Amino acid sequence: MAAVVRNRFYPIIACALAVFVIVGFSRTYYLRFLSDLPPMRTLVHLHGLVFTAWLAVFIAQTRLVAAHRVDLHRKLGIAAVVIAALVFSVGVLTVFSNSVIPRVRPSGLSPAASTIVPLTSISLFAIFIALGVAFRRRTALHKRFMVLAMIAVISPATSRLLTLLGLRDYSMYLIPLVITLFVAWCVVHDWRHHRIVHPAFAIGGVVIVASWPLRLMIGYSDWWQSVSQVIARIGAHL
């Protein structure tokens, strides 16, 4: 029975993360046609399509493993790596492009300086995906790195969900809290079923959570102000 419970955790958290993202982006992307929002830019729409493809593959991969179809999981893994690479590249371009759009940020950072937040998220996504691929033959590491990669990039969906709930002004506090709750879910699962927290979840989770105050520190630094201006100049041409 314990083995069955362990197998169910990853499909469940994968679906939970995917649903969370879809709900977060429901108004601004998935159900945008029901609102009076202006048309989306091509790059942003491409970003949405690529990330949606990633959500589908992410769920499929966890379901295949749970169904003991490791053979199909490995074959689909090639497509997953390609889509993950597209998520990273298109995501970075989208961040650069958004750096020139004037918006009031709860953090008080300028649009250009605030790029440190999504760039950190997408960088962590890439790092965890790379680790997952590197340790693909070590199941315990592989599956945890892939979940951490997904948790690392839920902040945009969290921000939009908080806006829907009228909590945007508190987003700099609530986004890290939501991410911490997902990490805690992983840690609690490990502890309940193994009586020990796997180092991948322990260390990776700490890195994701601890990156939030660090992002703000960097965002307000003088050297990042210079870097962000370069990002904005590049973004102006996208």
Descriptive report:
- The protein has 238 residues and is an all-alpha fold.
- The chain has one domain.
- It is 77% helix and 0% strand.
- The protein contains ten helices and no strands.
- α6 packs parallel to α9.
- The protein is globular, with a radius of gyration of 18 Å.
- The termini are far apart.
- The N terminus is likely disordered.
Quick synopsis:
This protein is mainly alpha-helical and 238 residues long. The protein contains ten helices and no strands. The N terminus is likely disordered.
List the helices and strands and how they pair.
Elements: H1 2-24, H2 26-30, H3 42-66, H4 70-98, H5 116-134, H6 139-152, H7 155-164, H8 171-194, H9 199-219, H10 222-235
Helix pairs in contact: 1-3, 1-6, 1-7, 3-4, 4-5, 4-10, 5-6, 5-9, 6-9, 7-8, 8-9
Number of domains: 1
Helix content: over 70%
Contiguous runs where pLDDT drops below 50 for at least 5 residues: 1-6
| Radius of gyration, in angstroms, nearest whole number | 18 Å
Mean pLDDT: 92
Supply the number of helical segments: 10
Provide the β-strand percentage band: under 5%
First-to-last CA distance: 53 Å
Overall body shape:
globular
In N-to-C order, the SSE pattern is HHHHHHHHHH
Number of strands: 0
Biggest pleated sheet: none
> Which structural category fits the helices and strands?
mainly alpha
